[in-house]
Design a protein that fits this description.
about 210 residues; mainly beta; four-stranded antiparallel sheet; 2 helices; disordered N terminus
Length: about 210
């Protein structure tokens, strides 16, 4: 089974200097988010606006997605403040070597946000793609993600685009990986280009070598 994610528009954003340490969503009104940064007075932000280095990317219901210096975080009304002062960096091994199975597929076990999953490498998928059942099993709040239309072998479906905190294959771990959750059942998680493009890939016979690029 091969799935292809729909073409998604990428937004070019300037990295803001790191000022904030604690960020909380205090409320939502009129399509704006009331954001509290450190101990300063709360301030309303519209999607796309930046204040003290914190950029509001999106707002849906009582959930907001913010970014500071390339790091994204989901905030919810009533939750405790989150720390955005330190940027997570990719860690672990600089090289991954995978061996194809009898059908020629690369099927490494791995982790998403520290939870075990079964991957299949798919260079035709623009994102990491998984089923709703897998997302529920590893406790992803995919319903709060952005709805996107995805083309599959069985026609177009509507999925949810979310941001994964971490994706791990072997000893290599990558942070802030975009994924799409689809409603239909899938036997594995597609390891698409939102993860793979962090590596330089080279295939030799039945081996696929991934060397970290950044």
């Amino acid at each position: 089974m091969r799935l292809f994610a729909a073409t998604l528009c990428a937004l070019a954003m300037l990295a803001a200097p790191v000022h904030a340490q604690q960020v909380a969503l205090s409320g939502v009104a009129g399509g704006k988010a009331l954001v509290t940064i450190d101990s300063a007075a709360p301030r309303f932000l519209s999607p796309g606006q930046t204040h003290q280095g914190v950029r509001l990317l999106s707002l849906q219901g009582e959930t907001a997605v913010v970014e500071i210096n390339g790091q994204r975080q989901t905030l919810r009304v009533g939750d405790a403040p989150v720390s955005l002062g330190k940027i997570k960096t990719d860690s672990g091994a600089q090289r991954i070597v995978l061996t194809a199975d009898a059908q020629g597929h690369f099927m490494p076990p791995g982790q998403i946000n520290g939870r075990q999953v079964q991957f299949m490498v798919d260079t035709g998928a623009t994102q990491v793609i998984m089923s709703e059942s897998d997302a529920k099993r590893i406790n992803l709040k995919y319903e709060q993600g952005q709805k996107v239309r995805v083309s599959t072998a069985n026609g177009d479906v509507v999925g949810h685009q979310i941001q994964l905190d971490s994706v791990r294959v072997g000893e290599a771990q990558v942070h802030s990986v975009t994924a799409i959750v689809l409603p239909q059942s899938m036997p594995f998680v597609l390891l698409g280009n939102s993860f793979l493009t962090r590596f330089q890939m080279q295939r030799t016979n039945d081996q696929l070598t991934l060397d970290r690029r950044y």
